[in-house]
Amino acid sequence: MKILFAPIGDPSGYVSVEYLVNGKGPYNTNASFIAISQALKIDKLVVYAGLSLCDTNCNDYKCCKDSVTQKVAQKLGNEFDLLIAPNIYGTRFIQKDRKNTLYFNFIYFNSLKILEDNKPDEIYIDITHGINYMPLLATDAIRLATYTYIVENNKNGVNLTIYNSEPVTKGNQGPYAIDDIYSEKITVRQALSSILSPFLSSESKNVIKNKVFKVIRNKANSENVNTSSCNADFIYYIVNALSAGIFLYLILKKNEINSCLNVVENILGKLDFNNFAVQLNFENGKVIYDENIPIEISYIHSLLKVSNHIAQGSNKISEIRRMADNYSTSDSVKYVILNEISRIEDKKNEIPNSPTLYAKILSTNLPRICSADKRNLIAHGGFEQNVTFLWKCGDDICVSYTDGKCDCIENVEKQLG
């Protein structure tokens, strides 16, 4: 399955010329993405146009949507899926905070839905016809969606390729070369590392804590949504657990991860193209998007999406082994976890049928329950002996940070913070 995404500007000036795609052709068309689609035999073509193409006589979203659809179809036809994104343009189309974050969030959220529905092996982006910030933001948003899709589907070896054409000059029919300017074959590990990378700086943490979650809380409170389990500290517990391969924490927190995901998805859901719910204010010849959604909310959504998927395993040693094989951020992390699992399995005959502190099973002197050491927690793949409880589950071994009486999860979070 092959999908091609193409952000465009105003197509009214596009003229038919000849294109060569990776040396193949020529293809006579007024849009490079049509030539790419023909040359590569693309299965699904998605075009992102800007809402700023809206007719000046419109005074509501439906009129704008219909106006843009008609303009694009008249010039480029309709042999593709057209999604109309809330872009900014000049002083007429603006966000109330004077930023352009809705465009990024819209493309990320809708591209992810398209990828999830179609499950492609090859993903292409044509940046030829985008203008100003559009190609950059669209590319970053689609890449984030691609990384999320790859981890969600545990899909190694997905190809992502970006195309661009030589500039078309007036009066010259070409042929113009369209070449891939960037290409990579993405693994689950690469995708997961890319999803985590925006969180790995103190500056990012401050932005998320002091800016983004302020927006999340305000929006949730206005809609009476409970955010008690969804805060910046929890996000960074997840980030550090994923980075270090502390999969047991994710498993034990799967309900909270899902609840937090629902809070964030409720915000981004306003940008769903099929149920677009961003309030537009038409006043004095301007169109103002009455919404403030920072770009970082898409990053948080991506993190929670993949964490929610990974956390669906059970708290059995065999499941954590599978997670280590599939979702470790490095071989070092993977083999730390597998080594600890082997050590636990070597003690299988000594493991009771009821939850027992790992330190006690190891016959460690004076075990201190719920007193994890950060270095040991990470160095032992989450199986720190003073917070880990083990018991037999049939032929398998179950593991937790609680025995039903002593709950060490807060101590573990203290080390993950």
What descriptive keywords fit this protein?
alpha/beta; elongated; 45% helix; CRISPR-associated protein, MJ1666 family; SSO1389-like fold; three-stranded mixed beta sheet; 417 residues; CRISPR_Csx1; Rossmann fold; single chain; Csx1-like_HEPN
Which range best describes the helical content: under 10%, 10-25%, 25-40%, 40-55%, 55-70% or over 70%? 40-55%
Detail the poorly predicted runs.
none
- Number of helix segments? 15
Determine the N-to-C terminus distance: 41 Å
CATH topology grouping of the largest domain: Rossmann fold
| Rg (C-alpha, Å) | 25 Å
Q: Give a count of the beta strands, DSSP E runs of length 2 or more.
A: 14
| Overall 3D shape | elongated
What order do the SSEs take from the amino end to the carboxyl end, as H and E?
A: EEEHEHEEHEHEEHHHHHEEHHHEHHEEH
Q: Return the domain count.
A: 2
Per CATH, the architecture of the largest domain is 3-Layer(aba) Sandwich
Counting helices, strands and paired strands, the structural category is: alpha/beta
Top CATH class of the largest domain: Alpha Beta
The CATH homologous superfamily of the largest domain is named: SSO1389-like
Largest sheet: 8 strands, mixed
Order of strands, main sheet, comes to 3-2-9-8-7-1-4-5
Strand content: 15-25%
Overall pLDDT, averaged? 94
Please characterize this protein's 3D structure.
It is a single chain. The protein has helices at 32-40, 61-76, 101-118, 134-152, 188-196, 202-222, 232-244, 247-252, 254-268, 296-310, 317-327, 331-346, 358-361, 374-379, 409-416; strands at 2-7, 17-21, 24-29, 44-50, 81-85, 93-95, 122-126, 158-165, 176-186, 280-283, 286-289, 356-357, 389-393, 396-400. The protein has 417 residues and is an alpha/beta fold. It has 2 domains: 2-309, Rossmann fold (3-Layer(aba) Sandwich); 317-416, SSO1389-like fold. The strands form 3 sheets. An 8-stranded mixed sheet has the order 3-2-9-8-7-1-4-5, with helices on both faces. It has a 3-stranded mixed sheet with strand order 6-11-10, with no helix packed on it. Helix 2 links the parallel strand 4 (44-50) and strand 5. Helix 4 packs parallel to helix 10 (296-310). The chain is elongated. The relative contact order is 0.11. The mean pLDDT is 94.
